[in-house]
């Protein structure tokens, strides 16, 4: 609500400036039209319009407004008209110029105001002592208004620099995230390439076996052909995902991200669910107690899905080692359902109190991997302490959303 009101005030500058100038009108008009002054009604109307009218453009055209008000005050002095409260508009103009971006213009406005104060004091006060007192008072007021304008100018510049710094840091953070996501896509693409290459190698071997067994052992040849069919469908599916990752990476990734990590052994099978036990043992050897549970019957999964499961568990346990603390323990739980696999990796470490330099992109990499298979990931501190990563990966193509 406050933000909307402030935006409205910024958009309606002339209206707001008229509002702030209205008190001068309220204290000037009764003195002119109340019969107590020596200024006629038409002269008073012209004087009020000349002094307060430019105030509507005080922040839009600060130097022009100050020059107009100073000129009207000079004409008033030359015509011998009495000083009115609306002459305080000179101080408002001085403040606006001093608070502007140019220090020299603010200093020039101060000089004009002090000279005007001396001229007005010399014309309307003949006593020397009163002249000194009045001049010092008016000059002190002008100096105080000028200093206030300088303070606001410095404060605005400081706030503007903070806003620019925050925007720059936000842009740098977004750039780092995009680079990290592009690097993760490149790594996923390389791993899926290895999976496809391995499947193609299996197809070639099975085809050779079927050829040799075609006449002597038809049943064996039939089994080889079935394996070729199954492996070929998996290879086609993984190839489609590979092309999707490459297209997305080509649209969004910087060129240097593709070379951010050397390729792992080409045509070599990637780790999967069967290697999770070895991963858990390595983490335990590193000093982190890990409990590993698996519920349900593991169905047949493509190597790409198994690789995704392995990488999620690996990244979650690595984060626990880095940020969980010296006494943390972890639990890895896999739940195989009819249509999806649920992965839960939780620890009882520092959780939200863990130090974060803002440069880790492992969670973004998890989301990239799971999104390839139409799944989702939720990661964050646990209510009772610690951190948890929960992922859900569809196991069938028709389940993908």
From TrEMBL:
Residues making up the signal peptide according to the UniProt record: none
Origin superkingdom: Bacteria
Catalytic reactions of this protein: ATP + protein L-histidine = ADP + protein N-phospho-L-histidine
UniProt-listed Enzyme Commission number(s): 2.7.13.3
Enzyme class: transferase
Keywords: ATP-binding, Coiled coil, Kinase, Membrane, Nucleotide-binding, Phosphoprotein, Transferase, Transmembrane, Transmembrane helix, Two-component regulatory system
Domain Histidine kinase: 304-397
Coiled-coil zones: 152-186
A molecular-function term among this protein's GO annotations: kinase activity
Gene3D superfamilies given in the database record: 1.20.5.1930, Histidine kinase-like ATPase, C-terminal domain
Transmembrane region(s): 64-83, 103-121, 133-152
Xref: CDD domains: HATPase_UhpB-NarQ-NarX-like
Pfam families: DUF7134, HATPase_c, HisKA_3
PANTHER family for this protein: NITRATE/NITRITE SENSOR PROTEIN NARX-RELATED, NITRATE_NITRITE SENSOR PROTEIN NARQ
Protein name, as recorded: histidine kinase
Organism: Actinomadura keratinilytica
């Amino acid at each position: 609500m406050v933000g909307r009101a402030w935006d409205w005030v910024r958009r309606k500058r002339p209206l707001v400036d008229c509002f702030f100038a209205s008190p001068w009108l309220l204290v000037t008009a009764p003195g002119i039209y109340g019969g107590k002054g020596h200024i006629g009604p038409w002269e008073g109307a012209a004087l009020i319009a000349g002094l307060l009218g430019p105030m509507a453009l005080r922040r839009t055209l600060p130097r022009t407004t100050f020059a107009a008000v100073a000129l009207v005050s000079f004409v008033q002095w030359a015509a011998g008209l009495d000083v009115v409260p609306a002459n305080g508009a000179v101080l408002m103009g001085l403040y606006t110029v001093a608070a502007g971006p140019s220090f020299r213009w603010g200093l020039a406005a101060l000089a004009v105001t002090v000279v005007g104060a001396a001229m007005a004091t010399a014309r309307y006060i003949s006593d020397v002592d009163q002249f000194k007192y009045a001049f010092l008072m008016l000059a002190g007021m002008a100096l105080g208004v000028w200093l206030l304008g300088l303070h606001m100018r410095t404060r605005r510049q400081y706030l503007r620099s903070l806003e620019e710094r925050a925007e720059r840091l936000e842009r740098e953070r977004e750039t780092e995230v995009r680079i990290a996501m592009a690097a993760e896509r490149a790594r996923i693409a390389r791993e899926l390439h290895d999976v496809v290459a391995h499947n193609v190698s299996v197809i070639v071997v099975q085809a050779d076996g079927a050829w040799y067994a075609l006449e002597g052992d038809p049943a064996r040849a039939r089994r080889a052909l079935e394996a070729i069919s199954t492996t070929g469908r998996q290879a086609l599916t993984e190839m489609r995902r590979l092309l999707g990752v490459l297209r997305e990476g080509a649209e969004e990734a910087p060129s240097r991200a593709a070379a951010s990590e050397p390729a792992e052994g080409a045509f070599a099978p990637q780790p999967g669910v069967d290697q999770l036990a070895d991963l858990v043992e390595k983490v335990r050897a590193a000093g982190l107690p890990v409990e590993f549970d698996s519920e349900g019957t593991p169905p047949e999964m493509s190597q790409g899905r198994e690789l995704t499961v392995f990488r999620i568990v690996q990244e979650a346990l690595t984060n626990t080692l880095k940020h969980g603390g010296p006494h943390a323990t972890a639990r890895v739980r896999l739940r195989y359902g009819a249509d999806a696999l649920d992965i839960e990796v939780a620890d009882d470490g520092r959780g939200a109190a863990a130090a974060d330099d803002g440069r880790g992109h492992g969670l973004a990499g998890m989301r990239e991997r799971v999104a390839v298979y139409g799944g989702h990931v939720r990661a964050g501190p646990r209510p009772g302490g610690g951190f948890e990563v929960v992922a859900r990966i569809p196991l069938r193509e028709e389940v993908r959303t």
